[in-house]
Structures are given as structure tokens and as C-alpha cells.
């Protein structure tokens, strides 16, 4: 059973959208990884699904600047409102990532610092969504923890839930859903200590 704070993540971001945007800032330490993600996508297309997109800054903004067409999904309506205002020519959807109802196929899927808010028991099913929404050759990039378990941080004076599977579980889920692992770095010191996975959908 997940810690009770796991049920409050979306509401916490929704109520504190301005504070999150201020704390997140515009610095893009992720750029080398985003460049690798872009390079792993099929040459023929740049349709990207940003899962847990927040306000669209800075990740979606960078992708848009590289010519990508972004569809952003986030459960926090206040953050989606900010994304729509900033990038009205792209598509922004309020939805919990666990119930993704999209039927499109994307050339790239990114879940940066968002997927790791799901309880461990909810994470395996996401790989079915990743596979279902991926065009042949699509790139997938997400961040996780380093070991199986929960970690409770703090945001806006409230507990902020994080959780992870272990590395072997992620490797198994990627392979089972048709993805080949391209790169994985745990606690990347060049990216704020993030643990990153980059894979490609085969066939």
C-alpha cells in the first residue's frame, strides 16, 4: 500500500502552480539528454508526447524550439492552463497519466520528473501506454529513482511523494513492451543527480 501522500500529488501541484513554476525555473540542465532523445527519434517525424508536462517550461519549450509538435499531458489543470497560454499552437490535455486515453502514435515520449510520482504498483502498467502510443522507432525517455521503494520529499510545505522500481524491473518492462535500452545513467552528476532512461521502440 502506497504512502497516503501518493494520492495528493496532482492536487499539490494544482494548488501551487505558480510556486512550482518559480522553483522549476528556466535553466535546462537536461539539454544534453533532450538532445540525445531528439537524435533517437525517427528522422521522419517530430510528434512528441510530454507526459507530466507541467507548464511546458523548460522541457516542452526546448522541444518546440527544435521543431517538435508537442502534446502535453498533466493532471494539474493550473499547470496546463499556463502551458496553453504560453504555447497556444500545441496541444495540452488535463489527464492523469495512468488513464491516458490518447490513441495517437508519437515519435517521442518523455516523462521527465513526473513518472516517478507514481506508486510502484502503478508504474508497470505505464509501459503498456508507452508501447501503445509509440510509433515504430519512437524514443522514450523517463526519470526514476535508483532502487525499489518510496521517498517522501517536500513541496509548498506539504509531503511530495516519489517512488521507483529497481533497475532490473525497468529493464524487464522496457524489453517486454518492445523497447531497446539505449542509455541509462543513475544519479547523473551532470543533470542534477537525475536517474535517466533512454530507449527506442522497435518494430
UniProtKB/TrEMBL annotation:
Name listed for the protein in its UniProt record: Ubiquinone/menaquinone biosynthesis C-methylase UbiE
Signal sequence range: none
Annotated InterPro entries = SAM-dependent_MTases_sf (IPR029063)
Q: What domain of life is recorded for the organism? A: Bacteria
Question: Which key words tag this protein in UniProt?
Answer: Methyltransferase, Transferase, Ubiquinone
Which BP terms does GO give this entry?
methylation
Recorded source organism is: Aquamicrobium lusatiense
From the UniProt record, list the coiled-coil ranges.
Answer: none
* Molecular functions (GO terms): methyltransferase activity
Amino acid at each position: 500500500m502506497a504512502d497516503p501522500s501518493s494520492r495528493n500529488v496532482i492536487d499539490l501541484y494544482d494548488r501551487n502552480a505558480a510556486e512550482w513554476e518559480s522553483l522549476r525555473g528556466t535553466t535546462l540542465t537536461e539539454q544534453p539528454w533532450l538532445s540525445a532523445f531528439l537524435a533517437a527519434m525517427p528522422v521522419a517525424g517530430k510528434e512528441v508526447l510530454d507526459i507530466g508536462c507541467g507548464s511546458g517550461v523548460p522541457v516542452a519549450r526546448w522541444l518546440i524550439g527544435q521543431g517538435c509538435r508537442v502534446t502535453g499531458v498533466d493532471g494539474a489543470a493550473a499547470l496546463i492552463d499556463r502551458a496553453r497560454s504560453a504555447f497556444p499552437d500545441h496541444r495540452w490535455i488535463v489527464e492523469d497519466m495512468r488513464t491516458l486515453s490518447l490513441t495517437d502514435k508519437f515519435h517521442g515520449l518523455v516523462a521527465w520528473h513526473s513518472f516517478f510520482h507514481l506508486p510502484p504498483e502503478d508504474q508497470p502498467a505505464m509501459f503498456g501506454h508507452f508501447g501503445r502510443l509509440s510509433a515504430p522507432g519512437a524514443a522514450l525517455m523517463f526519470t526514476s529513482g535508483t532502487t525499489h521503494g518510496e521517498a517522501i520529499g517536500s513541496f509548498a510545505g506539504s509531503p511530495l511523494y516519489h517512488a521507483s522500481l529497481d533497475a532490473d524491473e525497468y529493464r524487464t518492462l522496457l524489453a517486454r513492451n518492445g523497447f531497446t535500452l539505449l542509455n541509462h545513467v543513475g544519479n547523473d552528476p551532470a543533470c542534477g543527480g537525475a536517474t535517466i532512461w533512454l530507449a527506442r521502440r522497435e518494430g
